[in-house]
Design a protein that fits this description.
Elements: E1 11-13, E2 17-18, H1 28-42, E3 52-56, H2 67-74, E4 84-85, H3 91-104, E5 110-118, E6 124-127, E7 138-141, H4 144-148, H5 157-168, H6 172-194, E8 204-207, E9 214-218, H7 229-233, E10 253-262, H8 264-270, E11 276-287, H9 297-308, E12 317-321, H10 325-335, H11 348-351, H12 358-373, E13 375-384, E14 388-398
Parallel strand pairs: 3-4, 3-5, 12-13
Antiparallel strand pairs: 1-10, 2-10, 5-10, 6-7, 8-9, 11-14, 13-14
């Protein structure tokens, strides 16, 4: 993946809003176009340099048939083509991999990756079947029915978490400890008036569904659950005789995120600080036996590390998409990476899971953590539907200068 870079600061994430919250009635492609247009203007990124767009979206909405061309048209990038990608929770990692491959092989010089989703108000799809009794078709609740049953494995997503807990001997008390740690890490991102989040997070003007009348502003994550040891201990497992409660799994959310992927030379030209270099080093994917989704991030990470010519000992920071607390316990046990050093400043277990943009926000936070450290190598990995996972490895080279980015290091003990 030589010569694929993300310009420093050429990325964004909106706050994530809880299910049926502030973004529930807004078409996520139109919302991403509104946010992305302002982002390109504020960052002074010339539209004419962008020659590829990639849209990641997993939940159908009105107009999403047109996908990327509709998005780029609304962004003022009328001549920019590209695909629309859907790979469940791995959508962001796949979109970044595709952009990096296009840039590395020279078929694109500057790609804009946008991942946008709305878990709220998920579509109810009707599949006609004239050959069925009475000509009745099949109705599918796109989100809820697929959470409840994998058509191949035959289990619900929560079942995969319980299967992983049973195999690894994980109990509810240990899962509660993971959630408490992740909640404390998220609080660090809120310190000093959300100083960490302000490095990448953009405000979202709220409007009616027509996008004609502004009704408010979403400036920070909505729907974060206050978390205490006593509160977690009082929650019952979702499944009888299970280990995971609603406190030790993520919640559905809405939002979007975006990033530029380009060459080293172009990254230096348009990045906020040319002394900070962000290089994509390797991507990996894996699939484990059916019914064990939380275990998939480990082999995916191992593939990504091998392709980057690295080992887990070379990694300075880890971010995971962890819809279940068992995910992080599985990763720490398999790799030896300290559990309390993963997911500094937050993760999807706490700030929610809109699917498409989840991994991109995590990758952006990974970059900013490494910049604060003065540089280093980071790993993002996460599971996805179908007992699969994807991972990516990146390197941040950040010059240390008085008063500049990379001067201070975060407290990584939380």
């Amino acid at each position: 993946m030589a010569n694929a870079f993300i310009p420093y600061g050429a990325y964004w994430s909106t706050p994530f809003a809880k299910w049926q919250g502030a973004l529930a009635n807004l078409n996520s492609i139109r919302l991403a176009a509104s946010v992305g247009r302002k982002f390109l203007e504020d960052k002074h990124i010339p539209r004419e340099i962008i020659d590829l767009g990639i849209l990641g979206i997993t939940n159908p909405q009105p107009g999403s048939f047109y996908g990327l061309p509709w998005l780029t048209g609304m962004l003022g990038l009328e001549n920019v083509p590209g695909p629309t990608v859907q790979q469940a929770c791995a959508t962001s990692a796949r979109a970044l991999q595709m952009a990096a491959a296009e840039v590395a092989q020279g078929s694109a010089a500057c790609a804009l990756v946008v991942c946008a989703d709305r878990m709220s108000n998920g579509p109810v799809v009707y599949y006609p079947d004239a050959s069925a009794p009475g000509g009745n078709g099949l109705t599918e609740k796109w989100t809820l029915d697929n959470f409840a049953r994998d058509p191949y494995a035959g289990n619900a997503m929560i079942d995969t978490a319980e299967n992983a807990s049973a195999r690894l001997g994980i109990g509810s008390a240990e899962l509660n400890e993971v959630t408490l740690t992740r909640y404390a890490q998220y609080q660090a991102a809120l310190a000093d008036d959300r100083a960490f989040q302000r490095r990448y997070m953009v405000e979202v003007p709220l409007s009616d569904s027509s996008f004609r009348k502004q009704t408010g502003l979403l400036a920070a994550d909505q729907g974060i659950f206050p978390t205490t040891a006593e509160g977690l201990a009082g929650l019952k497992p979702v499944k009888p005789n299970g280990t995971h409660s609603f406190g030790t799994q993520t919640h559905p959310a809405d939002g979007n995120a975006g990033a530029i992927v380009t060459t080293r030379e172009r990254a230096r030209e348009i990045g906020a600080d040319p002394a900070i270099e962000i290089e994509l080093l390797g991507v990996g994917q894996a699939r484990v036996e059916k019914g064990y989704m939380p275990l998939a991030p480990v082999p995916a990470a191992q593939v990504a590390l091998a392709r980057a010519g690295l080992s887990i000992k070379d990694i300075d920071a880890v971010k995971t998409h962890n819809p279940f607390a068992a995910n992080d316990l599985a990763f720490a046990r398999a790799t030896g990476f300290p559990l309390d050093r993963m997911n500094n400043y937050g993760c999807s277990l706490i700030w929610g899971h809109p699917q498409g943009p989840t991994g991109l926000r995590a990758t952006i936070e990974l970059i900013e953590e490494l910049v604060l450290r003065g540089g280093g190598v980071g790993l993002f990995t996460g599971c996805a539907a179908g007992d699969s996972g994807m991972a990516l490895v990146l390197r941040v080279a950040a010059a240390r200068s008085e008063g500049g980015a990379g001067v201070s290091r975060p407290d990584t003990r939380n």
